[in-house]
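for the writeup, i need someone to sanity check this before i put it in the appendix. the sequnce is what the collaborator sent (i think, or maybe the updated version? ugh). structure was predicted straight from it, no edits. if anything looks off just tell me and ill rerun, i have time this weekend
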Amino acid sequence: MSDLFRLPLATKGDRSRSATKLRAAVVGLGKQALEDHVPGLLGSDAAELVAICDENDAVLREQQYRLQVNGYANVEAMFDAEQLDFVVVCVPHDAGRQIIEAAASRGIHVLKEKPFATTLSEAKELAKECERAGIHLMVTLQRRFNPIYTSFHQLADQIGTPFVVDAAYTLHIADPSEGWRGHINRAGGGCVIDMGYHLVDMLLWYFGLPDRILADMSINARPDRDYDAEDTALIHFSYDSGLYGSLLLSRFIGPKTEQIRLVGSKGIVHLERGRIQRLTNDGEVVESLAREQAWPSAAVSQVNHFCRVVEGLRPNVSGPRENLAHLSFIQGCYESARTRTYVNPKEL
């Protein structure tokens, strides 16, 4: 297969184009890209999708025809042929580093689907590479662009002294061994580093990096399948301030659930996907904020924010240095599960 497929590009009447928009490409046309990042780019007033890249012939041709942009089977060929301001990277975890380095060597900024890296050491090396190249890299953490999640601090300030937090993110995948996500050599881990990255980000955003982590993990949900990436993890964490909590992550426990509950001396904050509430300690709702049927707009907000980061108009809320804390938390979980002891992630 050739590296490039060319179809007639959309005309100005098909989709408004502006010379002031940043030129963007997407690498990896899986579910996350097609349901989140491509619509985010198409809905953005600050960016323009000009190219896509995927190794799968059929997927590439289909999306090239649908989107009317240049399509490539090879990412370096795309970088050499296109004048890009930034690239959205949505590939299996083990392939991310090579693409980031290729983009950095050409001065192309990167919007990277989580996780930032597969290990803490790799994250440190990539952070240095981005700094040397002078590029912006932002990890895609859409919840930071959703007002439900950004309201948490305001409500938490009204519940007195917080002392316990419990969080959970679970969903059901019938076969945890299916695809690259079931294997550590491709994914870097299972539910903790993959789907759990979002809840880890929330905990770090709201409370900071904990002082102690104790984790247990399972690869036993499907004993009839062959996989080594954890399907379920139960993580206990605590802070010297006295706050402590637990985090349940699972790729096998249904139904799909995402929540954080913070309990303080004068009330409770309960955060779910699409709703946040402040309650009394006996459970009476004091106030509630809901955002129904508006999740995709967070992807547009994220793209717009990143464009302003590139233009020097906004801070990078999820850059390489910020994500070293995420990998410290995650590595602390894996180290604790391996040694069956408490781990201080700040010492890693």
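The two ends are 45 Å apart (CA to CA). Residues 3 and 166 are 48 Å apart (CA to CA).
thx in advance!!
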